[in-house]
User: What shape does this take?
Amino acid sequence: MSQDAPAFQALPGATPDNSAFIDLYFDPSVSLPGKSTVSITINGWAMRLSAGQSVRIAVPPGPVSVVSYRFAAFLSPKPRLEFVVQPGQVVPVFYRASILNGDPGALSIGKHHGMSRTEKGSLIFALVVLLSILVTGATVVVPLLIILSRGMLE
Assistant: This one.
């Protein structure tokens, strides 16, 4: 989040006297090739953000839906935030890309810290698979080595 004032845009229906604001930030902490931009829709209004970019969006008071889209994640669920805003309210919304290919990233109303739930789940899955391969290998290789060593002694 930079100290500079973010760029400003207004959605249809937002008026100077009766608006709430969404400060939308693309967290640059994960910057991988092909993940430098993201498409975001706010109440059906589409825009693109680049890594590190921030923008202030005026929205009419009431329900707000923020959804992020990534081309590579067409089969994945789309990160979504839904909330209700009052006139004058400012809501910070953060998007963070994922370190996993095909993962759509994450949206939140607070800055992300550490790995996302999907990234943690994928890491745990990979560790379980690796551990099961090691255990299976040990149960096959150790008896085979015992049999072979007995045969060599004779």
